[in-house]
Amino acid sequence: MLIKNQLAELVKQAIARAQTAGALPAFPAPAVFVERPQKKEWGDFSTALPLKLARAAQRAPLQIAQALAAHVPPDDAVGRVEARAPGFVNFTLSDAWLARQVDAILAEGARFGNLQPERRLKIQVEHVSVNPTGPMHVGSGRNGAIGDTLANILQAAGHDVQREFYINDNGSQVRHFGESIFARYAQALGRDEKLPADGYQGGYVVEMGKHWAQQHGDRFLKMSRDQAVRELGRLGIDVVVASLRETLLRMNVRFDTWLSERSLHEDGTFAQALKILQDQGLVFEKDGATWFAAQALGEAKDEVLIRSPQVIAEPDERPTYLASDIAYVWNKLALREFDRAIYVWGADHHGDVARLLAATRVLGLDEKRVRIVIYQFVTLRRGGEAVRMSKRTGEFVTLDELIEEVGPDAVRFMLITQSANSTLDFDLDVAVKQSEENPVYYVQYAHARIASILKKAAESGVSSAGGDVALLTHPAELELIRAMLRLPEIIELAATKLEPHHLPHYGIELAGIFHSFYKQCRVVSSDPADAALTRARLKLVAAAQHTLARTLNLMGVRAPETM
User: Fold this and answer.
1) Is the pLDDT score of 236 beyond 90?
2) Is the peptide bond before 488 cis (omega within 30 degrees of 0)?
3) Which residue has the higher pLDDT, 264 or 310?
4) DSSP type of residue 290
5) How far is residue 559 CA from its own chain's centroid?
6) Which of 518, 533, 530 minimizes the C-alpha distance to 450?
């Protein structure tokens, strides 16, 4: 149980005890919330419950706080309970209890911080899902860092999590991509073929055209142009998807499933969802197209689901993005029965949110099962100036190039340092510095410093065996323990609000507190009189190492032994 929940139970007992003693009148038991206070001098935790009970108890909030403080039952975790104006009950944790948590953290090891939810949910986190028509850019990298870290956090919070990449391999973008590849393929064979005005301009398309010209000769020139465009488009998507996998693996992002958009139309999933809409009278035909009657649900305008064959000849290009979104949410919630479907979308999809939730409702599904995380875009900066173009190609900077320049750890860490709904400035100069200016280096260095301490102690024949944590009484030691005990709370907060940025902020804070402890407290002493304290402090730094490693691993960042 989280310590704040344990304290909340003590407050509930204090209410009952105070009422029995006549210090408070009878009133229904309220919900109790215990939080971190705004100022350290107020203690470790606080509840503002007396402010909310004034009317029910017919007492001044401070009187209620005093009555509760006087009736909190004894608990070995609590060192001091105080009432504070205008109506707070503040708790300070016991030094002895804090010291004992070092052994508890070491016993949990890599599981430290894990939560046990009241109900284990089956959750899908679908993220990145970039159009498979070219290399990933840095914005999609932020999507991957947010989504994968969220999945890690939700697993640590005790849920069953599946990570999915949704492959947009159906519709007009496949044709546009295929036309671009066909043009470059034909050019590679000496044919005068113009690149479409809306075609893909990148050098990677030129390379694809050359590759298939060398591998297949004029095979695609001998078939109908439409067939050649279709086949080359799908070949190109297969190549890009394979490349995306490699890029994402470089930044430690992995998926359990890669789901094809085309499969939702081929396996009848869209047909099932469409029938539900039809049965509710929310589908109509106009100008040869099939429409979703969104206005009937309060939306600004109706939306096309299936384009007219007079406009789009090819069947697999007729369904719109909305049609696929409807099929996909039905697939997630009705067919695969996820309790929660989490989407990570860029800010350019903000307008799609209401439409997806409306479709979810009319499919008979609870829209609360859908959570959408919208993230803002990334600006790369070097020397204070925005960087928009690749030095190598003169085009946009790819995620691969960013990883090559600053390393995957800096990419993962820095892409989640800001709240998703804030734009992010990625300072390339800071990301490569080996100093405390670089936040990922700062946190990793704390972990590596501990590894060095433990290694040198072992080489000197000193270990933590038999260490008595009761000797850990220095304020810097207790502050470090307090900081470590915040990890479960950070996981709960990030999982509840779907906000991964709390992790890097916590990691930086924990590293700073460790560095402060290290300056104040010598861990390994050569003085025989300090042998017992050395063993206890070796336990403390080992627990800090576990906590730092867990924090870094949740962010998908390495916890190095050396720097």
Assistant:
1) yes
2) no
3) 264
4) E
5) 18
6) 518
For residues 116 and 122, is the Cβ–Cβ distance under 8 A?
no
In order of 186, 207, 365, 395, the CA distances from 196 in angstroms are: 13, 17, 42, 19
Q: Which CATH superfamily is domain 99-107+110-117+436-554 in?
A: Isoleucyl-tRNA Synthetase; Domain 1 (1.10.730.10)
The neighbour count for residue 252, using CB atoms within 10 Å, is 18
Tens digits of per-residue pLDDT, 161-194? 999 999 999 877 888 899 999 999 999 999 988 9
The tens digit of pLDDT for each residue in 335-369 reads 999 999 999 999 999 888 988 998 899 999 999 99
Instruction: Give the residue extent of every domain in the chain.
Output: 3-93, 99-107+110-117+436-554
- Contact (CB, 8 A) for 388 and 426: no
Token pair listed for 28: 């229904």
Q: Whose CA is closest to 181, among 130, 220, 222?
A: 220
d(CA 488, CA 340): 22
- Residue identified by tokens 């707070």 is 88
- Let me know: does 465 contact 557? Beta carbons within 8 Å: no
Comparing C-alpha atoms, which of 374, 348, 380 is closest to residue 137? 380
Question: Who's near 516: CB < 8 A, 6+ residues apart?
Answer: 476, 479
444 class by beta-carbon count within 10 Å (0-12 exposed, 13-18 middle, 19+ buried): buried
3-state secondary structure of 281: coil
- Superfamily covering domain 3-93: Arginyl tRNA synthetase N-terminal domain (3.30.1360.70)
Distance between CA atoms of residues 66 and 14, nearest Å: 11
Digit-coded pLDDT (tens) for 323-333: 999 999 999 99
pLDDT of residue 104: 97
Helix (H, G, I), strand (E, B) or coil at 417: coil
Residue 392 has pLDDT above 70, yes or no: no
Amino acid at position 432, single letter: V
Q: For 132-160, what is the mean pLDDT? A: 96
| Section 109-123 average pLDDT | 95
**pLDDT higher than 80, residue 120:** yes
Euclidean distance between CA atoms 466 and 536, whole angstroms: 8
Q: Where are the alpha helices (DSSP H) in 415-501?
A: 428-431, 439-459, 475-484, 487-497
Q: Tokens at residue 238, please?
A: 């297969």
Place of tokens 């890097």: 504
- Provide the token pair at 376: 């803002």
User: What's the mean pLDDT when you consider all of the chain?
Assistant: 94
pLDDT at position 182 is: 95
Question: Is there a cis peptide before residue 50, judged by omega within 30 degrees of 0?
Answer: no
Q: What is the DSSP annotation of 126-155?
A: E-----SSS--BHHHHHHHHHHHHHHHHHH
> Would you tell me the crossing angle of helices 61-71 and 49-57 to the nearest 10 degrees?
110
Q: How far apart are CA 350 and CA 343, in angstroms?
A: 12
Residue carrying structure tokens 């052994």: 103
Nearest-angstrom CA–CA distance, 185 and 181:
6
